[in-house]
Write a structure and sequence with these properties.
Length: about 600
């Protein structure tokens, strides 16, 4: 009977033989095959998704996922999965983004290197550096396409204890905005001073996102005029961008120009009504919105409701600050969230063990073990007393060494070094929370920024990176912080809570508020291209629904400059103009990576 059933099933399957043979589905998509890194390819849907992701147009990505399309169902499902993958990555919901990227990899037969890099970035954001190294395996190739090598560099930089890069390796990169942004971020942490990074060399998207983070830090340190100036410059540079307008609205709220901020919110609701960040701004301005959205929940949510967002958004420090005992997760995600409070309390950024710990170990415990051995020797024999002392000293040393190793074990939750850093913050009375953080900080604050296919992504900046900082004198640092703390105390505090419902009916309008705020502050340039931008989203000028597919191309043959992708910025690879596929190169292998751990760290200029 069994053989008969098998024979019948086999005969029926012959009918589907051709379609099954053409079906591509990779059962092990995480393992990369050999070959050059490939980009582009696809049809109009892929182009639409890639352009929306490049512009951080979450509204278009959500609209595309909800749109009913005619055509090949498998192709449409694949492109909608890509849209979902980009949406989650831009919003910082990394665990879900990794899942979607794996689905995209499986559907593409393991042939999507962009999804593979997104998985690596997601693992770095989730503080799983070994998994990130594995995801980047085979992507580093000296063909002029620098994104995979930048990701591996950042992955190693995130591990100050076992990583294979240090300060000297920065000299191997030239005119690279990602590297320059890392250096400026570390310099900013050194003195908790955002004003050190106001001068921007680059004009690309990554630098603009970094400037948005500066706006959030300047708001927290009560430098309202500087924050508003930067936000207006960003609106002028990117008139269709969502976050520059949100930054301007938040700065106007801090200055008391609530009606002007509301005019910006109305414009955003007209163009990007599906964007969760716009819904969060509406919540800040006193309107009721769906709290199921992550960005909205961080404005209004409290207590246990916030717990689920710590794992869902591992680089958003505001989510961790919303619950009791979440300080170590917050500084694991982004230590810059503590900058304003650390400045007020004059806390140096670099961690060092307390003097009491040193005294207890060297002057109390060690002599105690020796005295105990002497006592045993007086009661028993000298050999037994010496054995007791040596055993206790070895146990003491082993426990100290084990504790040090645990502090160097990198992970997202309950990281020992971050727990110790949080205790140190409590000793200095540094307690960042919702009562002293400007409302809307989670919409702007970012840490180390990387790009994947030109799309700027945030992986946070954990507090253990202070290990990279030079050892400045605590006395000197505290003197600087005290001077700035006095200036903060004299300045007007930012808005800390959302506005109440219906405030626009009671509060008198500001002078000149009949003119839209951005037109009054910037001029007509603030609306350059917005008309066509809104028309495209409302259904006009939509792309055709025909499918004209193009095959993926190697990265070196694609116009990467049009998307702002860094190319040939590594000095040691300038001679490599043609692709040289070397899929066996691993991240962290100093023998295979020129410039990482080698003798000639600083190449001749």
């Amino acid at each position: 009977v069994g053989q008969t059933v098998f024979l019948l099933t086999w005969l029926v399957s012959i009918i589907k033989y051709s379609s099954l043979r053409n079906l591509r589905f990779d059962l092990n998509p995480d393992e990369r095959r050999e070959g050059a890194v490939k980009l582009a390819g696809g049809d109009w849907m892929r182009t639409l998704v890639d352009e929306a992701a490049l512009e951080e147009d979450i509204d278009s990505l959500i609209q595309f996922q909800r749109r009913s399309l005619d055509g090949d169902p498998s192709l449409i499902r694949h492109e909608k999965a890509r849209a979902r993958m980009w949406e989650l990555s831009i919003r910082g919901l990394w665990p879900l983004a990794i899942e979607e990227a794996r689905k995209v990899l499986a559907q593409s037969g393991g042939d999507d290197d962009i999804a593979r890099m997104l998985i690596a970035v997601g693992h770095m954001a989730s503080r799983r550096l070994d998994a990130a190294r594995e995801a980047l395996h085979g992507l580093e190739q000296p063909e002029g396409y620098d994104e995979p090598e930048l990701l591996s560099f950042v992955c190693e930089w995130l591990d100050p204890w076992q990583g294979n890069v240090d300060e000297d390796d920065f000299w191997d990169w030239e005119n690279n905005s990602c590297i320059d942004h890392i250096q400026s971020t570390m310099q900013m942490i050194r003195n908790w001073n955002p004003k050190q990074s106001l001068e921007v060399i680059h004009k690309d998207r990554l630098s603009r996102v970094g400037q948005l983070s500066l706006v959030s830090l300047l708001r927290a340190q009560r430098m309202h005029d500087d924050a508003l100036d930067i936000s207006l410059k960003l609106v002028r540079a990117d008139p269709t961008g969502v976050r520059p307008r949100i930054a301007a609205a938040l700065c106007l709220i801090d200055k008391g120009d609530w009606h002007s901020a509301r005019s910006i919110e109305k414009e955003l609701l007209e163009s990007d009504s599906n964007d969760p960040r716009v819904l969060a701004l509406s919540t800040i301005l006193g309107q009721s919105m769906d709290e199921e959205e992550f960005e909205v929940a961080l404005v209004t949510g409290e207590g246990k409701k916030m717990k689920k967002w710590i794992n869902s958004a591992p680089v958003n420090s505001v989510a961790a600050l919303g619950i009791k005992g979440g300080m170590d997760e917050a500084i694991n995600a982004n230590v810059l969230v503590t900058a304003h409070e650390a400045t007020r309390r004059s806390m140096p950024p670099r961690y060092s063990s307390g003097r009491l710990t040193l005294v207890a170990n060297v002057l109390i415990l060690v002599p105690m073990w020796i005295l105990l051995g002497i006592y045993v020797g007086s009661v028993r024999t000298d050999i037994q007393g010496a054995a007791v002392s040596v055993t206790l000293l070895l146990l003491h040393y082993s426990s100290r060494r084990l504790l040090s190793q645990q502090r160097r074990q990198i992970r997202h939750r309950d990281q020992k070094a971050m727990v110790a850093y949080a205790k140190r913050m409590r000793r200095f009375k540094v307690t960042p929370n919702k009562s002293n953080i400007p409302v809307g900080t989670h919409l702007l604050l970012s840490g180390i920024l990387v790009t994947v296919n030109g799309v700027v992504l945030d992986i946070g900046v954990p507090a253990w990176l202070t290990e990279h900082l030079p050892k400045d004198s605590d006395k000197t640092v505290r003197a600087r912080l005290k001077r700035r703390s006095k200036k903060i105390a004299k300045s007007r505090p930012p808005r800390l809570q959302p506005l109440g419902e219906g405030w626009w009916l009671k509060r008198p309008k500001e002078e000149g508020s009949e003119v839209p705020a951005l037109e009054r502050l910037i001029g007509a340039v603030a609306y350059r291209g917005r008309t066509s931008y809104i028309d495209r989203k409302s259904g006009k000028n939509r792309r055709p629904t025909g499918i004209v597919r193009t095959s993926p191309k190697p990265a070196h043959s694609v116009d990467l400059g049009s998307r702002g992708i860094p190319t040939n910025t590594r000095k040691s690879e300038r001679r490599s103009k043609l692709p040289k596929n070397n899929p066996n190169v691993r991240v962290g292998n100093s023998k295979n990576l020129p410039g990482y751990g080698g003798k000639n760290r600083r190449p001749p200029v």
